[in-house]
Amino acid sequence: MKLYKFPVAEPEMYRFACLLIVCASALAYEVGSDGASAPAIKPPQYNKCLKSLRKAEQVLATHQTNKKMPVTHSERHYAMMLGVLQYAAKLASNTKKPVNYDEVYLTAVDREMPHAWSDPVNVTKIIKEELSLLLARTNDIRDLIDSVCNDKSKVRTSDCNYLVDLIVKEHHKRYNTAAKIVLTLGPLSDLYLNSNAAFERAAKNHSIVPLLLSGYKKEFVNVLPKLTDVYNLLHLHS
């Protein structure tokens, strides 16, 4: 009788399986021997951050154009805002430390606003390039989060974040930069999604310029350091 030979797993697969077993054991013994709950350390919110990031990416995709538009078109005004913010992060990245973000932001508005207004198609091209680079830089961590935190796994959200964090730490070189990008962009994505109705309204009413200079100036300056961090991580090896 011919015996079936089971395929031999790669060493990396064994290490991954062992890590999952260790994680499961740690989760199983959250309660101490005296019955009291052990002090819980909240893991980073990988799953939530990735979901927020994907929603923001979808919204950004709806605000892109490959054709010339009349000056009254709302997307032309929206593109002006995106162009200024992208340029501000790039400018801050190339500014000598310590960075005066308020000054950098106003410089970006002054320099980039006319260019973004006159060529929204180029803004779309730049944003698409940044989104493509973002996807390339974060593919591994996206796959990891999706594999551990999916509905079929039946793992609690807090537990799946804990598992992802342990794997990120175990495979630091592979996941660390991508994890930083996703965890930084998660809260920024939430801010963007919560404010997008105001942005779209301003674009429709042709009032993006006052929004950039006064209405949301403080908010944009406040998020610029984090946007710059992400820009640096994305272009680290470019």
Descriptive tags:
single chain; 238 residues; mainly alpha; 74% helix; disordered N terminus
Give the biggest beta sheet: none
- Enumerate how many helices there are, as a single number: 9
Q: Structural class of the helix and strand makeup? A: mainly alpha
- Kindly give the count of domains: 1
- Helix and strand run: HHHHHHHHH
> Between the first and last Cα atoms, what is the distance in angstroms?
57 Å
Structure description:
This protein is mainly α and 238 residues long. It has helices at 11-28, 46-62, 74-93, 101-118, 120-148, 157-170, 172-204, 208-215, 217-234. α2 (46-62) crosses α7, α4 (101-118) crosses α5 and α7 (172-204) packs antiparallel against α9. It is globular and about 50 Å long.
What is the secondary structure topology, with strand pairs?
Layout: H1 11-28, H2 46-62, H3 74-93, H4 101-118, H5 120-148, H6 157-170, H7 172-204, H8 208-215, H9 217-234
Helix pairs in contact: 1-6, 2-5, 2-7, 3-4, 3-5, 3-7, 3-9, 4-5, 5-6, 5-7, 6-7, 7-9
In short:
This protein has 238 residues and is mainly alpha-helical. The protein is built from nine helices and no strands.
